[in-house]
Amino acid sequence: MPRAVREQQILDAAVRVFGRRGYRAASMEEIAELAGVSKPLVYLYLHSKEDLFTACLRREAAALKAAVRAGAGDAEPDGPVERGLWSVLMAFFTHTTGNPDGWALLHRQARTHGEPFAAEVATLRAELTDHVTSLITRASTGPLTPRAATALSHALVGAAESLADWANTTPATTPEEAARTLLHLTHPALSSPLARQR
Amino acid sequence: MPRAVREQQILDAAVRVFGRRGYRAASMEEIAELAGVSKPLVYLYLHSKEDLFTACLRREAAALKAAVRAGAGDAEPDGPVERGLWSVLMAFFTHTTGNPDGWALLHRQARTHGEPFAAEVATLRAELTDHVTSLITRASTGPLTPRAATALSHALVGAAESLADWANTTPATTPEEAARTLLHLTHPALSSPLARQR
Amino acid sequence: MPRAVREQQILDAAVRVFGRRGYRAASMEEIAELAGVSKPLVYLYLHSKEDLFTACLRREAAALKAAVRAGAGDAEPDGPVERGLWSVLMAFFTHTTGNPDGWALLHRQARTHGEPFAAEVATLRAELTDHVTSLITRASTGPLTPRAATALSHALVGAAESLADWANTTPATTPEEAARTLLHLTHPALSSPLARQR
Amino acid sequence: MPRAVREQQILDAAVRVFGRRGYRAASMEEIAELAGVSKPLVYLYLHSKEDLFTACLRREAAALKAAVRAGAGDAEPDGPVERGLWSVLMAFFTHTTGNPDGWALLHRQARTHGEPFAAEVATLRAELTDHVTSLITRASTGPLTPRAATALSHALVGAAESLADWANTTPATTPEEAARTLLHLTHPALSSPLARQR
DNA sequence: GATGAATGAGGTTTCATTCAT
DNA sequence: CATGAATGAAACCTCATTCAT
Predict the structure, then answer these.
(1) Does the beta-carbon distance from D113 to C25 stay under 8 Å?
(2) Which of A39, C93, D83, D163 could form a disulfide with C175 if both were Cys (CB 3.0 to 4.6 A apart)?
(3) Looking at strand F, which nucleotides approach a protein CB closer than 7 A?
């Protein structure tokens, strides 16, 4: 079996085990077993536990970004802001719902376990909040100080993350519902008199 | 030195170490050292690593709940809903800001490390979201289905958590700013036409 | 059992195993077993394989130096040079013969295995050759360039090392015989016309 | 490329790696890489790590012996003993200086690593000391008991080894200097009254 | 009540070695 | 003839946990 395929199998297993157990509690043994290969092979291809975790992180971050970008591309660029927002949110929740282990890895594990990884995922989150900051600045009907926009985007990203978790742990929850809820929260805030005041 | 005092010293140390390192990476050795006692004493008083972690969780959860309850009590019960919300948010952010290790323990560590603890903290979170659900149901100017209220409260709790993290890691951020941001997000959503539709 | 005693037991075992197997081939398991303790205890007291090896080296080097110094002290300081030399050689060979594993460690293993240790033992050997250099410079009846003295002392130290090995591996060989042989080699060289030429 | 050539390439690499790292620390991987061939080929030609090491040993021992023999052959057989000794020493030091890895392999590595190899190199050393024993017995101006001759030859071989190491690690040292030093040591000892006594 | 001494179990990592192609 | 793919075995090291004092 060619190397590239085996590598993906190993990464699949690693994302799952890391996502569920956490970095420290995950054992290379379990990952290898789940991947159906021997431990030395994991080391041959991915060098160390740290490298393996980083590789998982990068793959999942790239996948999430690609999914969101694809979602953004689906909406026509000149349409109303709300439609664009909707597409992005749907893409996000669809991806996190369909890939719960990857999402747990990015959202929960990577931020929890010390420095080698926090930076990796902080970049992703910064990209996200920056993007949201610029979105809401454009969408706001009233003036919004940069600081307030930053704070607001942190709140919104947190809300999205929480909804993603909720959708992943509550039965019969659809990406649509999560997206609708977040839109419900976002839209009026941006056009409210309160927003205009600041 | 009486036992109760020693126990609190140990819990203080444990909250700090668990909060920074995570459950697995934290060592009983380090906790005992930081608490200034010997390892066997830790075991005598708190039985096992798992028990110790659970004890930390319970203490921090109780402290957070007490702080929020006290905040809610400060506002006169018959005043406007907004004032009550403001008091609660201020109490919440003031507590998390003043006790970052405890907050990290509850928000990040407890949820990342497998089953023994997730349940413990899920209870806390459920109490919180239930409380928020009833708050927003009462505050909403339009009808709100229970399901929508639940979803919304998950989003809001996530936003609060994210803001608490943001306040803890960004210099010159005050509890007021976090509370204001969240209120900014909450208030218009509850009185907007969108909310009324549902 | 007190810590200091256990430490010596472990060092005894380690000197023996390292001396016979070499650094890499020696296993902490075997050392612990021979010392009659568990592996973790070895690590608790001596921290790592490298540290353990270094501790062995230092102990054996100190013992050898002490033995030689004591031998040198036995001869009256104003007596003939030959008597002093004889005492030192006897002390040296008596020590190496009585402590073959320690000698193997210093002479063979430490110099063979890379940088962390080579320096440690190079110091010892440098002390030795320097000492010998000054000895033969004083003892020589004719002039001796410093360079020639250095070369000569390297040859003599090598001869001593080889004789120590020979005495350790050949039955019925006494320290006296080794010392006599080396003296036989040294003495005439220092007073010969050849030496005088240089 | 014919097998014999490939084999020599592998042995070259192995001598270098074994000589520098030691038997245990050397990895078949590194040897194969340095030789520019794949690992399975190394196994196909040389069967195992142990066999490979032994093959290196034998090749280097043969080379050293051949060099010394050639040196001995250069001197006219009926000339003075000193000239013969000089030729042999020059040949020895020239070879060890020109082939430091091979020398390290024979002198340091082979003797440090346990039984399979010690015997191999002990034979070489025995041949050497026997040769030296007969040389000095013939060269001695006085009577020399066989036992004393043996002891003396061990000392001389050790001196030679030490000088070879010294020449290999000290800059600006020539084979001539090493040979001269050893001769300086040997010659007077053989004709001194002390030697005559025994 | 408190601790110095000790260990069983398990984790990451490496390496010599072998097939199937 | 040559190699990419793969592994069994064993090494170093750590940690939660327990006695005897």
Answers:
(1) yes
(2) C93
(3) 1-20
